Amino acid sequence: MKTIPKARILGIILSLLLLCSCATKSSTRPPLPADASINKGAGRGDFLLVMLHLKDGKELLFAIDTGMPITTLDSSLESKLGKCIGTNQYDYVWYGKAENRVYTAPKLYLANTRLVTGKWVFTDDLSRKFITENSSGTDADRRVWGILGMDCLENYCIQLDFAAEKMRFLDPNHLKAESLGKAFPITLSDRRMRVGETLAGVKGNSWIDTGDPNDGALVPELFDHQLKNQKDQKGIVTREFKTPAGKAEIAARVPNGEFGGLIYTNLVLLKSPDENIVGLQFLARHLVTLNFPKRTMYLKQTNVGSLADGNKNKNSIP
């Protein structure tokens, strides 16, 4: 038997380790799903919705929600999820506190591609959280079966094209950034996405929430400042209302706004006690690219005004 020198053996081992390392990196990179159709009402007062499915292949309507840390399924799907492993107290912004049940995450697919998710999912009665009438007053029988949360979304670079009614999954390492509009650094903390701008046109910390069908919210100081600055302009409308949880809120429709140095008109803003929020209706004025792996949001302004102008929808503030 021919003896192989020790130095050569070490070289072979190192080569094999490098090959294994390369193979591991390639195999663990999540495959990109195909483009998905989104609902016409998204950003027009409705939620952002796409069709997904579990392993059985039955299509289920899901809301895409950057404000939800954990993917949540409707309670009626619990029979498909195996054994409940616990409960979790969760405080919804609009719907108050709820006790969600916790299950091992099932395989979740967009078309033929399995999505990367966290280890667990919540379950809840989603019928109380989604008003099923869309912007045209139809689809009254539509049912939302799940909320796709940040445990999934944070793994991808997602583009929201409201004009084309498409959600695209892009390669985060090979974007043509020059064609995507203005870049905003984002931070992820507790699976919440934040940016250093506000809808008051000043620097600040805002939560990017595609689960909020309105333009967004401002903390009391900025909200009051906006109304004071525009008090001499026509078009300001304020109203008080109660959330589904019974909490009193104030909303205002203001004629002018600013974000990241760009000017906008006809913003629907809520007075928030402790959080600036950028919602879906504002995002829909842009081609939006959320590059979570690279911690960057791109906004390419396509509309100064709201896509929801002239539409009536029960999900948004009138």
Total of helices:
4
- CATH hierarchy class name of the largest domain: Mainly Beta
Query: Quick check: average pLDDT?
Result: 84
The side-by-side strand order for the widest beta sheet comes to 1-12-11-21-22-13-14-15-20-16-19-18-17
Question: Can you tell me the overall shape?
Answer: globular
CATH architecture of the largest domain: Beta Barrel
In percent terms, what proportion of residues is strand? 35-45%
Number of domains: 2
Radius of gyration: 22 Å
Quaternary state, please? single chain
- Give helix % range: 10-25%
In CATH, the topology of the largest domain is named Cathepsin D, subunit A, domain 1
Structure summary, number of beta strands: 22
Order of helices and strands: HEEEEEEEEEEHEEEEEEHEEEEHEE
**What's the main sheet like?**
13 strands, mixed
The poorly predicted ranges are 1-27, 133-140, 312-318
Description of the molecule:
The protein is mainly β and 318 residues long. It folds into 2 domains: 36-153, Acid Proteases (Cathepsin D, subunit A, domain 1), CATH 2.40.70.10; 179-301, Acid Proteases (Cathepsin D, subunit A, domain 1), CATH 2.40.70. Helices cover 13% and strands 38% of the residues. Strands 1-12-11-21-22-13-14-15-20-16-19-18-17 form a 13-stranded mixed β-sheet. Strands 2-3-10-4-9-6-5 form a 7-stranded mixed β-sheet. A two-stranded antiparallel sheet has the order 7-8. The model is unreliable at 1-27, 133-140 and 312-318 (pLDDT under 50).
